[in-house]
Amino acid sequence: MKNILIKGEYFKDAQGRNLMLRGINLGGNVKSPFSVNGASPVQEGLYDNRAITFVGRPFPLAEADEHFNRLRKWGFNFLRLLVSWEAIEHQGPGQYDEAYLDYLYQLVKKAGGYGFNLFIDPHQDVWSRFTGGDGAPRWTLEKVGFDVTHFSDTGAALIQNLPGNSPQKPLPDMIWPTNYNKLACATMFTLFFAGNDFAPKTLVEGEPVQDYLQRHYFQAMQKVAERLKDLPHVIGFDSMNEPSVGWVGWENLHSNWNLLRLGAMPTPLQSMALGSGITQEVEIWQQGLLGARKTRTTVMNFEQRPVWKKGYACVWKENGVWDLDKTGKLQLLRPNHFTEINGRKVDFGRDYFVPFIQKYTQALRAVDSNLTIFIEPPVGTELPSFEATDADNLVHAAHWYDVVTLFTKRYLPFAGADVDAKKVVFGHGKVRRLFIKQLANLKEESRKHLHNAPTLIGEFGIPFDMRAKKAYRTGDFSKQIRALNANYQALEANFLHSTLWNYNSDNTNDHGDYWNGEDLSIFSRNQQTDPHDIHSGGRALRAVVRPYATRIAGTPIKLYFDMELRIFEFEFRHDPAITAPTEFYIPDFRYVPDYIVERSDGTIERNLDKQLLTWHHDPAVELHWIKIYC
């Protein structure tokens, strides 16, 4: 039996108490092999897919006790443990890295010894390391005909660790998401989710490309599930980190629309042409607080280099999307190619994402029938509707970020991005209410579309390298503390479970999380001035290490923590069927041993060694409240 059960919108323990899962993503460095120097501006071995290893990601087993002990001390009780498809199957289709699977088992087993429950996250960003992100093995790209060494030359992907990029001339901050709609990533996601409809002529070893890619993905995750199935603290698997719709539903192939317009923005048709060696004049865009604007144009692929291997042609040309006319001019043949199938308008969620989740769930539960599946809809889309028979033991694991802070690397408490209304909100109070509302909307999606399933915010967090890494020079992390506290207060107002992004064991001030300029780790060796102090190395701990109810003998009504005054308030309505007490994490990092406890009723017990407060409520009282301060 799994350690955590699901009933309605709640996670529950064996005594029926509602759990509060306060977790962390472990960790950001899993995006790159342990054997590759991610800090190098020119990454040696970038194109190697065989002589690599992910053993040691997120940290070597010899360091595990240090990191798990620190995370437990900081009050985390849940892990989103990252793996990648590449780590499992990097050598070739059906060739699994047994050493990595052995390492993963030992790491996960040790996590359980420290009291952590967890779920496995098959992590990807913009498909693969070879397309500017992480996740899928190189061979997935080559099987459809891509020459991965020509992605940068043809505008098919922006890749950080290539010649021409350096500390003196780095890629702009947070430009990597633009890869989602460039040729390589958009093609792969379209083929993965919807290739049977939109690329029926594309076969891999005689098998439809969608079926081929999904089959290998499912089988790779089954290998992980098989290795871990005897560990009860592994409660489930994420479906896929931040998937993309690719070009499915794209109505105008002459438009460079994107969630983020930054840098060179070829349209889908231009991307297809560039990949076939046809020079294109492409728009350059700049992003600002009030939106994006076109600044100029540039000529791309002047050398007319193709991105397709010898003997392969553009997937989309072969499937009738475009061609050259008799004069050699680029011609769009099927303007509605990605929007209609047999005259029916497609809906990505209904037609492709829900069936993917159904097949993925079936594949994993064939290994372990008790697995919970954490699902993430594609970036920028709403959770689609699931039938009640398909929603059993599913969790909505959406992500949420304060996008102004994330993309500007500045904390502006008076400015927030209302993504739905496509406007900027000004005013401290309005921003606070906006955060609470955005998270409440995600919870409402779970109620409407997933039959009141639990909601867990799979990622949230803030960049620590704000204002050109000023805090690393001054030691003043006050802005980071305030930004992260604002995140947590919005989560707490909605009683939401969460896994913070992220804990990176080898983060440095110079190189951050070693991936596309990101630096969101709450731990860094550079801040670790005293290795004997478990808190040393922590960033913004005043915001991170905060009290909360871990096990609740009923339904929470109020959860509030004043970070500055260290006042914690909690209310709940008890469940008459539950006789077990309510438990709280009270960090000694913030509270002296004789902290004050006021309460409506009942008795309390303190376990200072475990940072635990146990509250035995009086069942004769209906509504219970507690206030803790020092």
Give structural notes.
The chain is of the alpha/beta class. Helix content is 25%, strand content 22%. It contains 14 helices and 30 strands. The chain has an eight-stranded parallel sheet. A five-stranded antiparallel sheet has the order 3-23-26-29-28, with no helix packed on it. It has a four-stranded antiparallel sheet with strand order 24-25-30-27. A hairpin with a 2-residue loop joins strand 11 and strand 12. Helix 3 packs across helix 6, helix 5 crosses helix 6 and helix 11 crosses helix 13. The radius of gyration is 25 Å and the shape is globular. The model has no long low-confidence stretch (mean pLDDT 95).
Principal-axis shape? globular
> Helix count, per DSSP?
14
What is the arithmetic mean of pLDDT?
Answer: 95
Please identify the structural class as seen in this structure. Answer: alpha/beta
Measure the end-to-end span.
40 Å
Strands across the major sheet, in which order?
A: 18-17-9-6-5-4-22-21
* DSSP summary, beta strand count: 30
Helix content: 25-40%
Radius of gyration: 25 Å
Q: Which segments are poorly predicted (pLDDT under 50) over 5 or more consecutive residues?
A: none
Amount of beta strand: 15-25%
